[in-house]
Amino acid sequence: MEKEFEGKYALVTGGAGGIGFAAARELARRGLSGVILADMNAEAAEKSAAELEAATGCKCWGRYVDVSSPESIEELFAFAAATMPGLHILVNCAGVCPVTPVEELDAAKWDWCMNINLRGAHLCVREAIKPMKAQHWGRIINIASLAARIGGIASSVSYAASKGGLLAATKSYAKVLAKDGINVNAVCPGVVRTAMTANTAYTCDGIPMGRLGETDDIAGVIAFLASEDSRYITGCGIDVNGGQYMS
Ligand SMILES: NC(=O)c1ccc[n+]([C@@H]2O[C@H](COP(=O)([O-])OP(=O)(O)OC[C@H]3O[C@@H](n4cnc5c(N)ncnc54)[C@H](O)[C@@H]3O)[C@@H](O)[C@H]2O)c1
User: Fold this and answer.
1) The pTM is what?
2) What's the CA-to-centroid distance between 93 and ligand 1, angstroms?
3) How confident is the model at residue 103 (pLDDT cuts 50, 70, 90)?
4) Which of 86, 161, 217, 239 has the fewest C-beta atoms lying within 10 Å of its C-beta?
């Protein structure tokens, strides 16, 4: 396969497993030079990084971050600047999916979800655009959700609101960063089989393709949005859900 991402460096939050790791693996398979897998689960991130580097030759670092902490995000991007010669691709994938009933969704629970899923993604964008502007090239891919389109299925109101906010923010970033050569898009996965959905009762009802999503179904779309082929696409939310919702 052509090494289309050779010379490119990426940072994936929530990269220890699930969709984030699958995205990093797909980019690495296509020749990516280096990637930081940043996750609150530092041990899993380091293990995944070692496995990915051994399998693909892409230079990989596993790194702790808590995206709800502005200081932790600053530390992560300082590490990225000190370690990689550039930052070309940011995948904002770290996320939580609470199922708190609306009556129990108090201020603290609301803020917890927002600070990870929405504010965390924003603060990562804010850091990532510094090197991207200097390079006049960047790709930012925000992992939103089908919940941003239709409200959550089993997830709480705060989850749908955080992902809806991320989708709206994606359009705003796209507008203001286009002049800097930075494309910002979102992916809205339907139900994907990961740790996040492992102990839930999602079924294939209402999915025309008759199956739940796999991480590689999402990873290929993320890689497309990170590639040169997406050069004239910005501010989009791509639905990847087996036909469950068509925008
Ligand atoms: N699985 C699905 O059905 C589905 C559907 C739509 C959207 N998504 C979104 O995809 C993204 C990835 O989810 P996944 O399905 O791969 O689940 P996952 O649980 O495997 O991945 C989420 C990752 O985020 C990390 N994380 C959680 N809080 C964090 C924090 N504060 N700081 C840093 N890292 C943190 C977790 O440790 C985990 O590795 C999430 O944003 C999720 O909302 C998932």
Assistant:
1) 0.98
2) 6
3) very high
4) 86
